From TrEMBL:
This is Tetratricopeptide TPR_1 repeat-containing protein. Residues 73-131 form a coiled coil. TPR repeats lie at residues 98-131, 132-165, 234-267, 302-335. It comes from the Bacteria. One of its GO terms (biological process) is cell division. It comes from Flagellimonas lutaonensis.
Length: 467
């Protein structure tokens, strides 16, 4: 006799496992086997699932549902030929079974043939009475194809069947977000909240959309509603704290971050943000305390070491800053930001050779910021390596041809090299791009007591402009 799953849903599983431990063979209805197999597959216990399929097909050799579960396992194990053969047999028996098309679609999806998978799922959709799962599968296939509009529509259909399907809700918002349609996401979520006013997930997602649009007051209200709906919603407190930081309300942000620590175990990220807030408030000792807590909680969090580095750098404690940036680099030596900061510290320590090396690392790792080119060139000037400084500035101009600062800086390098004609050309091109910056250039010459250069360059430029 079949066991009643409503009476004790685990009873058939316990009975099956008891059978495996003995030589006895117990009888189960096909529905019992389906329940047992689903339990094992859903919990990642594939070997036990296969055992249950084996016993199930021995007792119910003609059961299509058990054979389809066998197909599911074959597909999971990438045994596509065997799965297709079994599906062909099943289709001859029951050609109107939508699960056959779903499993064929799964095979095509795993073969990266997503268009064919979509076609098969649409056929399944025509046969299915309950199409919730098929719309979800269609949504995933459209995501694989980068068709975010169709994916969005599919996941929206899922929410029409079950408005508590938060996985689909996240996917809908993801599609809006990827298409940068933040207004569309906001409108959709507001409509959803009209129907589900106490859905903390929707309020949380709405707040994130407002945050993306820099609508911080609206974002704050949304996260507050998320917290009202669920006062233990960790993500809502964290996002609310980020908004409060943006609004300059650092003390309130600290309260929110501390709440996340009370709700769950402390996280290095929460400690880091609390430290940043205290630093903004001028609470230097507390900032330092939380930065050290950050790296204590997670010694591999390179951002924590960078925060300590920046703290000491601002205090002009360059040797301490160097100690901590080296820790960050040891954790993530491919991070261009860390090498740039390392270069700045070496430059402040007047260790220009090491600064030169660090700037080169930063550039090689993809830091092409304007400031990096200018500061690197300055370091090379301090070592009197004017040829390298010239090359650095010319490289920088490939990225920023319209930035006057590079032209003026290159003019200065040419003067150091004794190449007054090229210096005049660069001053002229700099003035064409930004005439106001010429004052800074003159100040730089005066700082190094090169008054004669001012006279030569600007007298010549005056003659050139007169012509």
């Amino acid at each position: 006799m079949a066991l009643d799953p409503n009476e004790n849903p685990d009873k058939s599983i316990h009975k099956f496992e008891s059978m495996l431990k003995t030589d006895d063979v117990y009888f189960f209805d096909a529905e019992d086997f389906e329940e047992i197999i689903h339990h094992y597959l859903n919990n990642g216990k594939v070997a036990l699932g296969k055992k249950a399929i084996q016993f199930g097909l021995q007792q119910h050799p003609n059961c299509i549902e058990l054979k389809l579960l066998h197909v599911e396992v074959l597909v999971f194990e990438d045994k596509f030929e065997e799965a297709n053969r079994l599906l062909d047999e099943l289709q001859n028996i029951d050609g109107q079974n939508e699960e056959i098309y779903i499993q064929r679609a799964n095979i095509q999806s795993k073969l990266d043939n997503h268009k064919e998978a979509v076609r098969l799922l649409q056929e399944a959709l025509e046969l299915a009475n309950d199409s919730f799962d098929i719309h979800s599968l269609l949504g995933m296939e459209y995501l694989f194809m980068d068709d975010y509009e169709m994916a969005k529509q599919s996941f929206m259909r899922c929410l029409e069947y079950d408005d508590r399907d938060y996985s689909s809700l996240y996917n809908v918002v993801y599609c809006f977000e990827f298409m940068e349609d933040f207004d569309g996401a906001i409108n959709y979520l507001n409509d959803y909240l009209e129907r589900n006013p106490y859905c903390e997930v929707a309020w949380h997602q709405l707040g994130k959309m407002y945050f993306s649009k820099q609508m911080y007051n609206e974002a704050l209200a949304s996260f507050d509603f998320a917290i009202i709906s669920d006062d233990s919603f960790l993500g809502a407190y964290f996002e609310k704290a980020k908004v409060l930081e943006k609004l300059g309300r650092y003390a309130e942000a600290i309260d929110c971050y501390e709440t996340t620590i009370e709700i769950d175990d402390p996280t290095s990220h929460a400690f880091l943000r609390i430290g940043k807030c205290h630093e903004k408030l001028g609470n230097d000792d507390l900032a330092k305390y939380y930065y050290y807590n950050t790296v204590h909680e997670d010694p591999l969090l390179d951002k924590g070491w960078l925060a300590i580095t920046n703290y000491y750098f601002k205090k002009k404690a360059y040797k301490k800053a160097l100690h901590y940036i080296n820790k960050a680099i040891n954790i993530d030596g491919e991070n261009a930001r860390y090498w740039k900061k390392c270069a700045e510290i070496y430059a402040a320590l007047k260790n220009f050779d090491e600064a030169d090396f660090a700037y080169k690392q930063a550039i090689d790792l993809g830091n092409f910021e304007l400031e990096t080119w200018v500061k690197w060139a300055t370091v090379l000037e301090n070592t009197a390596d004017f040829n390298s400084a010239e090359q650095v500035l010319l490289q920088g101009m490939e990225f920023y041809p319209e930035e006057a600062v590079l032209h003026y800086h290159l003019a200065l390098v040419y003067l150091y090299m004794g190449n007054a004609p090229e210096a005049r050309k660069k001053v002229k091109s700099g003035m064409e791009l930004n005439a106001d910056m010429v004052t800074d250039f003159k100040t730089e010459l005066l700082r190094y007591k090169h008054l004669s250069w001012i006279t030569v360059i600007f007298a010549n430029n005056k003659k050139t402009s007169t012509k």
